[in-house]
Specification:
This protein is of the alpha/beta class. The chain has 13 helices and 13 strands. β6, α7 and β7 form a beta-alpha-beta unit.
Length: about 375
C-alpha cells in the first residue's frame, strides 16, 4: 500500500490535500526543535543561533526560485500567503480592481468576497477544461485602473496548468500587479521569479512532504507594503510574531529535496497517471477526465464516472474500503454542495467524481487497490 516514511495499511491518494512528512524533514525538524531553543529576536547567543538558521533557510528557498532572500516572507501556509498578497495589494499598492477566475482556491475567492465594496472583482472566462481565455484577460487589462491579477498556476482540483509566463507578460504590458498561487506547482515546475517578473507568489510546505502550518510568500523587492499581521519586526516587519523555526527549517529541507528530485518525481507521477487511465480502460469503466489532459500537473487527475448505481455514499464507501481520496460532485460525498471548480467548467454534478492525486510515495499497488474498489462500486451487482 502507500509507501510513506512509515508503511500504512490503507491507500493514500489525496496528496493534493496534503502529503506525508518525509523522514528527512522529520529529522531536521526534530533536531531544530531540540537544539534551537532561543527566540530569534533575542540578542543573546541562543537567539542569534535561531535567527541565523532562519536566514540560512531563507537564502536557500530564495535560490530555488531565483529570488533575493529579502523577498521571502515565511507564513503559516498558502492561505495566509494568498490573503497577505491581496491585503498588501489593496492597502499598500492602491489596487482598486482584482482580476481572477471562478476556479481559484477558496483561499483567494473568499478573501475577495470580504473586500470593501469599492474594490472591483472581475473574472477571466474559462473553457470546459479550466483553461483561461487570455484574449479575455487582455481585454480586461485594457481598462486602465490599478489592478492585481491573481491566477493560480496549477488548479488544485483538476490539475489544469495555466500559462504563467504569458499571464505575467500581459500584466507587464498593462502595468498590472501579478500574484499566483503556486502551492500545487512548485515541487514539479521550474519557476524563476525574475524571468516571470511576478510580484507575489504563494507556497505551502505540506504539499511537498514538508510540515503543515508553514509556507512563504514571495514579495518583489520594490514593493513597499504595510504588515499583514501587526506586531514585532519579524519578516521585514511584514508579519509580526515569533517565527516557527522548526517549520521553516522543515520547509527548506522539503523544498530542497523536491527540487533535487524534481525530474525523477515528475516522471514517476506521469507514469502513475498514465497507469491509472490504462487500468480504467482495461476494466471498461466509463469515465471522463475533468480538466486539460495535456497541460496539466503530473500529480493530479480528476475523473467523473457514468453509472446507474446509487453513488450517494461513494466517497464514504471508498474510505470504508481503505482508500483515502477526494471527491468533487455533491452526489459523491453525501452532501448538497459540490465542487465549485467542476460546476464552473460544466461537469454534470449528478455524476460521481473523484480527484486522484499522487506523490513520490504512491505506487501502482495503490492504483490497483483503487481500481478494484471502483469496479466493485460502479460495475458489480
Amino acid at each position: 500500500m502507500s509507501n510513506g516514511p512509515k508503511t500504512y495499511s490503507k491507500v493514500y491518494l489525496d496528496n493534493a490535500a496534503t502529503t506525508f512528512l518525509s523522514k528527512e524533514v522529520v529529522d531536521v525538524m526534530h533536531k531544530t526543535n531540540l537544539n534551537l531553543i532561543g527566540n530569534p529576536s533575542s540578542i543573546h547567543s541562543y537567539g542569534r543561533a535561531a535567527k541565523a538558521q532562519i536566514e540560512v533557510a531563507r537564502k536557500s528557498v530564495a535560490q530555488l526560485i531565483q529570488a533575493h532572500p529579502s523577498e521571502i516572507i515565511f507564513t503559516s501556509g498558502g492561505t495566509e500567503a494568498n490573503n497577505t498578497a491581496i491585503s498588501m495589494a489593496v492597502k499598500s499598492l492602491g489596487v482598486r480592481r482584482i482580476i481572477t477566475s471562478k476556479i481559484e482556491h477558496y483561499a483567494i475567492l473568499n478573501p475577495l468576497r470580504s473586500l470593501p465594496e469599492d474594490i472591483k472583482v472581475e473574472y477571466v472566462t474559462i473553457d470546459n477544461q479550466g483553461n483561461l481565455d487570455l484574449n479575455h484577460l487582455s481585454k480586461l487589462l485594457k481598462e486602465k485602473q490599478t489592478t492585481l491579477v491573481s491566477l493560480m498556476h496549477v488548479n488544485n482540483e483538476i490539475g489544469t496548468c495555466a500559462p504563467l509566463q504569458q499571464i505575467a507578460d500581459l500584466c507587464g504590458l498593462n502595468n498590472a500587479y501579478f500574484h499566483s498561487d503556486t502551492v500545487q506547482s512548485l515541487p514539479y515546475y521550474n519557476i524563476d521569479v525574475k524571468k516571470l517578473n511576478i510580484d507575489f507568489l504563494s507556497c505551502s510546505a505540506h504539499k511537498f512532504h514538508g510540515p503543515k502550518g508553514c509556507g512563504f510568500l514571495f514579495v518583489k523587492q520594490n514593493i513597499d507594503a504595510a504588515p499583514f499581521i501587526a506586531g514585532g519586526n519579524q519578516e521585514r516587519g511584514l508579519r509580526g510574531g515569533t517565527e516557527n523555526i522548526g517549520g521553516i527549517c522543515g520547509l527548506n529541507e522539503a523544498f530542497s529535496n523536491a527540487k533535487k528530485e524534481q525530474v525523477k518525481n515528475t516522471a514517476l507521477l506521469s507514469e502513475l497517471k498514465t497507469y491509472f487511465i490504462d487500468q480504467l480502460n482495461h476494466e471498461k469503466i466509463q469515465y471522463s477526465i475533468n480538466g486539460n489532459t495535456v497541460e496539466s500537473s503530473p500529480a493530479i487527475i480528476n475523473v467523473s464516472f457514468k453509472t446507474d448505481k446509487d453513488v450517494s455514499m461513494f466517497l464514504f464507501n471508498l474510505d470504508l474500503a481503505g482508500i483515502a481520496i477526494s471527491g468533487g460532485s455533491a452526489c459523491t460525498s453525501g452532501n448538497n454542495k459540490g465542487s465549485h471548480v467542476l460546476e464552473a467548467i460544466g461537469v454534470p454534478m449528478d455524476q460521481p467524481a473523484i480527484r486522484v492525486s499522487f506523490s513520490k510515495y504512491s505506487t501502482t499497488h495503490d492504483i490497483d487497490a483503487l481500481i478494484k474498489t471502483l469496479v466493485k462500486l460502479l460495475l458489480n451487482d
